[in-house]
Amino acid sequence: MSQNTIILPKNLSKSYNMLSLIGNSEAKMDAKGRVFVPASFRHLLDDQHVFVLRKSLFNQCLVLYPEETWNELIQVLRSKLSRWKREEEQIFRQFVAEAERIELEDNGRMLIPKRYLTAFNFEKDVRFVGCDSTIEIWPAGKIEETFVETETLATEIERLMSEQTP
Fold first, then answer.
1. Residue of 143, 105, 148, 106 whose CA lies nearest to 25
2. Strands (E) located in the chain
3. Binning pLDDT at 50, 70 and 90, where does residue 146 land?
4. Domain-wise residue ranges, the chain
5. What gap in Å lies between CA 72 and CA 103, rounded to an integer?
6. What is the torsional sign of CA 147, 52, 74, 67?
7. pLDDT of residue 166
8. Residue 60 has pLDDT above 50, yes or no
C-alpha cells in the first residue's frame, strides 16, 4: 500500500486555515465493498468516524467528506439556494439525496454502498486521493485518465495564477 499523504498546518496563512489533505494511497476492497481508509488519512482527521459519501459532480469517483466539512458545504449551498424557488430547491434536494452518512468501524474500515460500486465499476483495487478537505475514492487506474501532461499542467497553473496576481 502506497502512503504519500501529507498534511499542511491548519494555520498555513491568514487566507487559509482549513485542514488540507493531499497525496494518495492504494487500498484493497473485499467482495462486500468494505475497504480500509488509509491510516495516513485517518490520523490526519483526528480519528473522526462520521463522514458523508457522495458521488462527485465532475468526475467518475466518490467524495468522502468529513462531517464538519459536509456541514459547512451544506450551509453555503443552502445560503445560495432559496427554499422558495422550485428549481433551486430541486437542485438542493438532489445534491443531498445522492449523499450517504458513513461511519468508520473502529479499525478504520468503511462500506461503500453497492449502488456506488456498480455505478463506477469498482473492483478490488481502489485509490484514495486527498483533495484539500475531502478524500476522493477512485477505481484503480481511473484517476490517471483525468491527468494532463506535466507541461500542460505547468502552463495552465502559470496562466491561472498570473491572472490572480496583480
1. 143
2. 6-8, 20-22, 24-28, 34-36, 50-55, 62-66, 99-103, 109-111, 125-131, 134-139
3. confident
4. 18-140
5. 19
6. negative
7. 60
8. yes
Distance in angstroms (rounded) separating the CA atoms of residues 32 and 80:
38
Cell numbers for 163, please give them: 491572472
Residue type, 163: E
Q: pTM of this prediction?
A: 0.81
Residues 6+ apart with CB under 8 A from 32: 111
Q: Give the CATH fold of the 18-140 domain.
A: Chemotaxis protein chec (3.40.1550)
For the segment 91-122, what is each residue's pLDDT rounded down to a tens digit?
999 999 999 999 999 888 999 999 999 999 99
Answer whether 135's CB lies under 8 Å from 129's CB.
yes
Q: Of 50, 144, 140, give the one whose Cα is nearest residue 99.
A: 50
